[in-house]
């Protein structure tokens, strides 16, 4: 699998997980709406998204020797 295809699948997985969470947990949608209105909650949303991206791209990477 070439790097471009792998990046596409990782991004698609991230979007699918976000949509699934919003559909499965309606309070998550309420949290995102509240975060858009209140900046102090928006930072938590940014941190959660950064963690999700870091976990997706960090899984399967071997540490450099």
Kindly list the characteristics that best describe this protein.
single chain, 65 residues, mainly alpha, 3 helices, elongated
Instruction: State the distance separating the first and last CA atoms.
Output: 24 Å
Give the low-confidence spans. none
How many helices? The count is 3
Average pLDDT reading: 79
Helix content: over 70%
Could you give a short account of the major beta sheet?
A: none
Q: Order of helices and strands, N to C?
A: HHH
Q: What's the domain count?
A: 1
Quickly give the structural class: mainly alpha
Estimated radius of gyration: 15 Å
Query: What is the tally of beta strands?
Result: 0
Description:
With 65 residues, the chain is mostly helical. The protein has one domain. The protein contains three helices and no strands. Helix 2 packs across helix 3 (39-58). The longest helix has 22 residues, at 3-24. The protein is elongated. The chain starts with a helix and ends in a 7-residue tail after the last helix. 0% of the residues are buried.
